[in-house]
Amino acid sequence: MLVLRQDEGDAPGPPQPLMGHQKLELSRRATLANRLQPDLFVSVHANDGPPRAHGPIVFIGKSPTARTLRCATEVERRLVRVMGGKARVETGDFYLLKNVRASSMLVETGFLSNAGDRAMLTNPKSRQRIARAIAGGIAAGLSAATAQNRGQSLDQD
């Protein structure tokens, strides 16, 4: 399932405390995700920061499952091939990572405040490559998790 934000109320800018309407929107997303019980919840964003900051970052919760860590690592590895930069999978204290019960990750595809990243993020062909990198990383991570779970089941029999 794909859910897209319809407005730019949360557009990049200096970090701000969550306002009431933003918390409500995030709460709705978490409620929807918890109701749907996905195998993996992925929230995709474009970052903002100092102009020198660049490259993708994948954030995971403070106590990630093995599945989450595997998927995040695979997504980041593929994104770095497309976007450049260094591989960064970091823990984050984000509302959705704390409130969605499924394995979850927040993918920052690059920095809109960086000219190079912005050029890639605004180019339709580059966005397709970024989307394929994310999808490929998710597929590889879930596939590895499934294979490992099968192996554990066989070991327990």
Helix count from the secondary structure assignment: 5
Amino-to-carboxy terminus distance? 35 Å
Count of DSSP strands: 4
CATH architectural group of the domain at 40-145: 3-Layer(aba) Sandwich
**How would you state the average pLDDT, rounded?**
85
- The general outline is globular
Poorly predicted tracts of residues: 8-18
Q: What name does CATH use for the topology of the domain at 40-145?
A: Aminopeptidase
Strand portion, in percent? 5-15%
N-to-C SSE string, H for helix and E for strand: HEEHEHEHH
CATH class placement of the domain at 40-145? Alpha Beta
Helix content: 40-55%
| Side-by-side strand order of the widest sheet | 1-4-2-3
Structural class: alpha/beta
The description of the largest β-sheet is:
4 strands, mixed
CATH superfamily annotation of the domain at 40-145: Zn-dependent exopeptidases
Round the Cα radius of gyration to an integer and report it. Answer: 16 Å
Keywords: Hydrolase
Organism: mine drainage metagenome
Region (Disordered): 1-21
Domain MurNAc-LAA: 30-139
Question: Can you put this structure into words, describing what you see?
Answer:
With 157 residues, this protein is α/β, with parallel strands linked by helices. Helix 2 (66-83) links the parallel strand 2 (57-60) and strand 3. Helix content is 51%, strand content 14%. Strands 1-4-2-3 form a 4-stranded mixed β-sheet. 28% of the residues are buried. The model is unreliable at 8-18 (pLDDT under 50). The protein has helices at 20-36, 66-83, 95-99, 115-121, 124-156, and strands spanning 41-47, 57-60, 89-91, 104-111. It has 5 helices and 4 strands; from the N terminus they run H-E-E-H-E-H-E-H-H. It has a domain at 40-145: Zn-dependent exopeptidases (Aminopeptidase), CATH 3.40.630.
